[in-house]
Amino acid sequence: MQIKRKRFLGIPVDIADPDSVYKTIEGFLQDGGKHQIVLLTVDKILKARMDQEYNRLIREASLILPVSSGIIHGAHFHNKGELTRYNPYEFIIKLFMIVEKFGKTAYLLGSRKEDLQEAERNLKVSFPMLKIIGRFAGYFNKTMEEKIVLTIKKSSPSLLVVGKGVKGKEKWIIKNKKEFNPGIYLWIDNYLEVFSGREKKISKKIFSLGLESLSGFFSRPWKIFRIFPFLYFKFLVFIYKILGY
Predict the structure, then answer these.
(1) What are the structural domain ranges in the chain?
(2) DSSP for residue 203
(3) Considering only 47-51, 100-104, 218-222, which range has the smallest mean pLDDT?
(4) For labeling, which of 48, 131, 144, 222 is most exposed (least CB within 10 Å)?
(5) Local structure of residue 209 (DSSP, 8 states)
(6) How many helices (H) and strands (E) does the chain have?
(7) Do residues 145 and 168 touch, judged by C-beta distance below 8 A?
(8) Is residue 100 within 8 Å of residue 130, measured between CB atoms?
């Protein structure tokens, strides 16, 4: 199946089955290009509608893969085709498997130092042939940024995965992309914390129900306020349908 890019609420999203996506990623590792992958959520769609720089970031991404159930249902309501929803944790595992399979390299950026170190140890157990050629903890001050970018450039990883503690998230990648060598770049929220064991991964059942954003509600009750942007998103889906966009 060929990857097709559609616009949903004015924001691009890719329609593709997993086999096509992962074959495309294999191609990214060998074509000498610079490829940013975006895991698209409802929040990111709303942000891209308000922030032109972030909108451009998404438009220029090599892959835009939906991870929120709201996007899947909304796109179906708009007759955009059958979108495949990707579980971020399973996606990053598959990404590491592909990098390992092709003998390529990875660089880990983000999280607290102790979590980063523990995550790297666990990754080496799960992927013994994965070449992790660099790592740097997040929450660094501005004066360290130039050094970090230079280190990543010199190590020239095939895959740069950025996590918590990097100010700007995906914007940090696109801001420094011109300095990096060809490869794949991805921001994914708490993957290092999950691999370190500090945080639990979202269960398949919770993910399938589309309730991952409310996971941990009882320990973080303020998550209930996430209902408001979601309701706004639903409103936009309905209005765009009525207007025929």
Answers:
(1) 4-196
(2) P
(3) 218-222
(4) 222
(5) T
(6) 11, 8
(7) no
(8) yes
Residue 232: CB atoms within 10 Å: 12
Q: pTM of this prediction?
A: 0.91
pLDDT on residue 175:
94
Place of tokens 């011109």: 178
Around Cβ 10, how many Cβ atoms within 10 Å? Answer: 12
What six digits make up the tokens of 217?
Answer: 């509600």
**What one-letter code names the amino acid at 109?**
L
Cα gap 245→235, rounded to integer Å: 14
Contact predicate 60/12, CB 8 Å: no
Read off the tokens for 136: 């740097």
Which of these, 81, 57, 59, 58, lies nearest to 71 by C-alpha position?
A: 81
Q: Is 175 helix (H, G, I), strand (E, B) or coil?
A: helix
Give me the amino acid identity at 164.
K
Q: Do 229 and 235 meet the contact criterion of CB atoms below 8 Å apart? A: no
Work out the number of other CB atoms within 10 angstroms of the CB of residue 7.
12
Tokens standing for residue 5: 């890019």
Cα radius of gyration (the chain)? 18
Please answer whether residues 119 and 153 qualify as being in contact, where contact means their C-beta atoms are separated by less than 8 angstroms: no
Q: How far does Cα 191 stand from its chain's mean position?
A: 10
